[in-house]
Automatic annotation (TrEMBL):
This is Type II toxin-antitoxin system VapC family toxin. The lineage of its organism: Bacteria, Pseudomonadati, Pseudomonadota, Alphaproteobacteria, Hyphomicrobiales. It comes from the Bacteria. It holds the Pfam family PIN. InterPro entries: PIN-like_dom_sf, PIN_dom, PIN_Sll0205, TA_system_RNase. CDD domains: PIN_Sll0205-like. Residues 5-110 form the PIN domain.
Length: 122
C-alpha cells in the first residue's frame, strides 16, 4: 500500500499520502507486516513474492521495524476489541515507538494508537 501512495493512487487516503510523502517522516515497515504476508501466501490467500516486496521496501528507502521486547510489553496491555494478532502487534509497535500507524483496518480506531486510514474505499 505504501508504494502505491507514491504513485498518487486514488485509493490511498489523502492524509495517508501526505504522511508518506512528507520528507521529514521516517517510513517504517514492520517485520510483522511481512510475516502476515508470508502467512497469507502459504495458505493460498495471496499470490506475492516476499523477495519482491522486500526489494520494493528497500528501493523506496523505507526502514524495517523489528519486533522488540518493548513492543511485546505494549502488546500485553492492549484491549482485545478484535482477534487479529498481527494487527495487535502493529498497534503495540506504534504505541511503543510513538508512531502513527497506517492501516485500513476498521478496528484500529477502537485502540489508543495514533493512526491514519489507508484507503478511500474499493
Amino acid at each position: 500500500m505504501m508504494c502505491l501512495a507514491f504513485a498518487g493512487d486514488p485509493r490511498i487516503e489523502r492524509k495517508a499520502q501526505d504522511l508518506i510523502a512528507e520528507i521529514a517522516n521516517d517510513i517504517l515497515v514492520s517485520t510483522a507486516s511481512l510475516w502476515k504476508i508470508v502467512v497469507k501466501v502459504r495458505v493460498g490467500k495471496l499470490d506475492a513474492d516476499i523477495s519482491d516486496i522486500v526489494a520494493a521496501i528497500n528501493a523506496q528507502g523505507f526502514e524495517m521495524l523489528d519486533i522488540r521486547p518493548e513492543h511485546l510489553e505494549a502488546l500485553v496491555r492492549l484491549p482485545m476489541h478484535h482477534r487479529d494478532p498481527f494487527d495487535h502487534l502493529l498497534m503495540a509497535q506504534a504505541i511503543a515507538e510513538g508512531l502513527t500507524l497506517l492501516s485500513e483496518d476498521q478496528h484500529v480506531s477502537a485502540y489508543p494508537v495514533a493512526h491514519a486510514t489507508g484507503t478511500n474505499g474499493p
